[in-house]
Amino acid sequence: MAQRILIIQGHPASDSLCAGLASAYAEGAHAAGAEVRWLRLGEMDFDPLLHAGYRDAQPLEPDLVAAQAAMVWAEHLVWVYPVWWGAMPALLKGFIDRVFLPGFAFRYRSGSSLWDKLLAGRSAELLVTMDSPPWYYRWVQGMPGHRQMKHTILEFSGIRPVRVRSIGPVRSADATRRAQWLQQARQWGTQQGRRAPVSSKNRLQG
Fold it and tell me: Which Pfam families does this chain map to (predicted)?
């Protein structure tokens, strides 16, 4: 059985380096025999605002219903996005606010501060571009965006392991360096596509 990989392209622009990295990763994974599906957030139709928080249910647009179904289907989630002001773009954060809902991504236990991790059984990979040198983002700024995505969103929902790949500095990169990053993304996709599918135990059934 082929590995099931979902790629979430979180940059709003279709001509960005993130879009290129996502396509290169998909090419490598597909060539290695994986099944690949896409979510291109810039092309999806949804309101990124969770208007009442969790107090009232906010109906999901068809694109978000399809996104949840794709996450249920997937065994490995690949998130490709830039760091803007230390963290993810507003579009991606809005997508997560709308999709990672109680009852889908997690469920608090009655009378307890503990919770059930409803997306357990999946792994994830973050391809994150940035204008800062990755060492600076890690050691000086403390990786706030990486910590948010890995620990407080994905692992909170049971998705693990989560591998983070920092790509930068983009601002000063020439064409040769960008081509190298694209080739790396292709290799990462190939490596993941060759992996055996994860066990279906504890996974939501799609």
Answer: Flavodoxin_2
CB of 38 closer than 8 Å to CB of 108: no
Domains of the chain by start residue, with CATH: 4-47+60-193 (3.40.50.360)
How many Å apart are CA 61 and CA 193, to the nearest integer?
Answer: 31
Task: Find where tokens 């963290």 sit.
Answer: 87
Q: What is the Cα–Cα distance from 129 to 141, expressed in whole angstroms?
A: 15
Q: Please compute the mean of the pLDDT values over residues 97-112 and round it to a whole number.
A: 95
Segment (H or E) for 116: strand 115-117
Of 16, 134, 29, 144, nearest in space to 78 by CA: 29
85-116 exposure pattern, b = at least 16 Cβ within 10 A, e = fewer: eebbbebbbbbbebbbbeebbbeeeeeeeeee
Q: Rounded CA gap, 146 and 62, in Å?
A: 29
- DSSP structural state of residue 153: I
- Using only C-alpha atoms, what is the Rg of the chain? 17
Residues whose CB is less than 8 angstroms from the CB of residue 191 and which lie 6 or more positions away in sequence, other chains included: 28, 32
Which residue has tokens 């009852």? 103
